[in-house]
Amino acid sequence: MSFEEDIWFEETTPFTPAPELEQPEPELEETLSKKSGRKKKAIWEHFESIGPYKSGHTGAKCLYCLKTYKNAKPTDLEDHIANQCPKVTADIKTTYLRI
Ligand SMILES: [Zn+2]
């Protein structure tokens, strides 16, 4: 018989708990976003930061279509991912369309 029914059981592998306990989030993370308290900077997962320029602005480069912004405002970046980027995956796009 070549029926490999065992395959079905692979998904039910018993979960082995990680030996480490969950640590509280380090305070170093995202000190700049304290105002909103939310991870507003998640948009930066999709951009590479450039600069800062002499003007004081921070630039951004889209990791997907490589478009660059000289003054990277989070709202612009989100708009780019949601409405403009030709290469971003539908999954990511949907995330930002909801905002
Ligand atoms: Zn893009």
TrEMBL record:
Keywords assigned: Metal-binding, Zinc, Zinc-finger
BED-type domain span: 38-92
Region (Disordered): 1-35
Source organism superkingdom: Eukaryota
GO MF assignments: DNA binding; zinc ion binding
InterPro entries registered for this protein in UniProt: Znf_BED
Name the UniProt record assigns to this protein: BED-type domain-containing protein
Native organism: Diversispora epigaea
